[in-house]
Every structure is written in structure tokens, then in C-alpha cells.
Design brief:
318 residues, mainly alpha, two-stranded antiparallel sheet, 15 helices
Length: 318
């Protein structure tokens, strides 16, 4: 392969057949998968940068045939070049995800083999603090009207599960393990939750939680009896976390939320928003079911300004 100059820019970075295939892929992402505009822009940019690299790597603009026969070595060379240009692990991982999505699309059309991109491991991501949603976005996510499932009872089910995560700070496993008899008493102010290590804690219930679960109960076509799961799958069986995670991923694209907006991020949001409104760390620890206060302190990193404000007002020597 010919050596490619650093930061090379080529006026023509792909053959017409490859450009046409990419445009068709981007249209499908917009019209079928309904991805958000910023996600589409990122995918367009990532694949355009990849085509630029291939133009220098191959010493000519790549065609559909060139992309169809990519090797792992080609992808490694691309990531190495991007890393040398200053791209971080997150940028490289997102770029690889866009290329992988494009190649999988081509593979479904019988125009490429995506094996190399699937086998290629994304760069190891640095550990970071939890990223909560804003209060506005969290409220949107738990609304029944924002759920994408066309079946009313499933939309209500998803809204109820997500409301438990944000309104009570539950883990998704804790919400899905609730018994069919749970939350029947609309006057109940709290509910016992069994978390990690079999430890039980009492979690306060907001009226919005009662309303969300009651709407789901009303619409659910299955008998929600004691001894059986409260939340059911489409065929009446156990509801798996992956279903909620997948449906929120779709909603995330439609609402234009960041990739960090996951069901678990709602639990982070619960803690962060309580802290931001003056909640004390020890109480939040109890509500989350953390065995150690040091675990809860992870949440303080996302709202340090609020903690310092409380400190300055409350400390006798401040």
C-alpha cells in the first residue's frame, strides 16, 4: 500500500457505487430506525473520514468492492492513524461502531462481508463517572406518550418500569423482580425492596409511581397475581432487562438523547437530582441500597458545585 500523508484530504474519497451505498444506508437509518439527527451526522462524518483514509491507504478512492473485502489489518491501520491524529478511545470506538453498522447493512444486502469489523475489538474505554439525564429529559423518558411501542399496554409497561427507576432509584433487576401483588395499595407510602446481597430496604413511593403502575395494570392483558411477576413480556412470560434496554435505545435516538441515556442512568439521575435539591448523602445511600457510603460517593462527582454550596452554607467555619 502507498504511504498516506498525515492529515491528508482528498477531493474524491470514494467511488460513485460506494457513495450511493452509503447514502442508501443513511436514509435507512433516518427513515426506518429513526435515528436522531446528531447520530446521523456522526455516522456520516465517521464513514467519510474512513473513506478518506482508504483513499490514501489504497492509493485511490475506494469502491464498494474494496470495502466489501476489508481485512482486520485495514481497520487496525485506520484506528492507528486516527489515534496518531489525536482521537481518544471514545471517538475511536464510536467511529468503529459507525463503520461496523455500515458494513452490516451492506452484508444484509449481499454486498459485503462484515466479519472483519465484527471481529475487531473496540478500543478500551476509560472509566468515567455516571452521567445522569437532565431533569427535563428524565421526565420525558418516563412518559407513556414518549414510548415507541405501538401496543398501549407495552408502552404503559415500559413507562412504569422506567418510572420506578427514576422515581424510586431502583436497579432494573429490582423493578423486574417485583411480585404481581406489589403496589396494589395506592395509599402506600413506601415499598420493601430486596437488593444485592438479599438486603431489604424501604423505598418511598411518589404518587406518579402509583399512577404509572396502575395504568399498566389496567391495560395489561395478563392476570397480575401474587407469586407471579408484575411486569410481563409480550407473550405473558418474564420480562427481561434487555427488552427495556433495547426499547430505551430506540427512544433515545428518537428523542435525541445521548448514548449514556440508559435505564441505569435513570437510577443515577434519581440520586443526582436528590443531591442537587439538598438531599444528604447518607439518606441517598439508604435509598439506593448501597452497602458502603464510598459507593454512593460516586454520584457526588457529577454535582460537586452543589456539594460545595451546601458545605459553604452549613459549615460553622465557612
Amino acid at each position: 500500500m502507498a504511504a498516506q500523508p498525515q492529515n491528508a484530504e482528498f477531493l474524491v474519497s470514494a467511488r460513485p457505487d460506494l457513495i450511493a451505498a452509503r447514502e442508501e444506508w443513511l436514509r435507512s437509518l433516518k427513515n426506518t430506525r429513526r435515528l436522531a439527527a446528531n447520530t446521523l451526522e456522526a455516522y456520516e462524518r465517521d464513514t467519510r473520514q474512513f473513506f478518506q483514509f482508504l483513499t490514501g491507504h489504497l492509493a485511490e478512492p475506494p469502491s464498494l468492492k474494496d470495502v466489501a473485502t476489508l481485512r482486520i489489518a485495514d481497520l487496525r491501520s485506520y484506528l492507528a492513524r486516527r489515534r496518531n491524529d489525536g482521537a481518544g478511545a471514545r471517538t475511536l470506538g464510536r467511529g468503529l461502531a459507525g463503520i461496523r453498522s455500515f458494513l452490516r447493512h451492506l452484508e444484509k444486502q449481499g454486498m459485503a462481508n462484515a466479519a472483519a469489523s465484527i471481529a475487531m475489538r473496540a478500543p478500551k474505554q476509560p472509566k468515567s463517572l455516571p452521567k445522569p439525564l437532565t431533569a427535563i429529559d428524565a421526565r420525558r423518558v418516563v412518559e407513556k406518550g414518549e414510548q415507541l411501542n405501538e401496543e398501549p399496554w407495552i408502552a404503559a409497561r415500559n413507562a412504569a418500569v422506567l418510572t420506578l427507576l427514576y422515581g424510586c432509584g431502583l436497579r432494573i433487576s429490582e423493578a423486574l423482580n417485583l411480585d404481581g401483588a406489589a403496589l396494589r395499595d395506592a395509599s402506600a407510602r413506601s415499598i420493601p425492596i430486596t437488593g444485592k446481597g438479599g438486603k431489604t430496604r424501604m423505598v418511598p413511593l411518589l404518587p406518579i409511581v402509583h399512577r404509572a403502575v396502575e395504568e399498566y395494570r389496567t391495560l395489561c392483558p395478563y392476570e397480575l397475581d401474587a407469586g407471579k411477576p408484575l411486569f410481563r413480556g409480550a407473550r405473558g412470560g418474564e420480562l427481561h432487562p434487555a427488552i427495556i434496554q433495547r426499547d430505551m435505545q430506540k427512544m433515545r435516538g428518537v428523542l435525541g438523547l445521548p448514548e449514556t441515556a440508559t435505564p441505569h442512568a435513570l437510577r443515577h439521575s434519581f440520586a443526582t437530582h436528590l443531591l442537587g435539591r439538598g438531599g444528604d448523602l447518607r439518606t441517598i445511600q439508604e435509598l439506593l441500597g448501597h452497602a458502603s457510603l464510598s459507593t454512593t460517593q460516586v454520584y457526588t462527582g457529577v454535582d460537586t458545585d452543589r456539594l460545595m454550596e451546601i458545605y459553604d452554607k452549613a459549615h460553622p467555619r465557612a
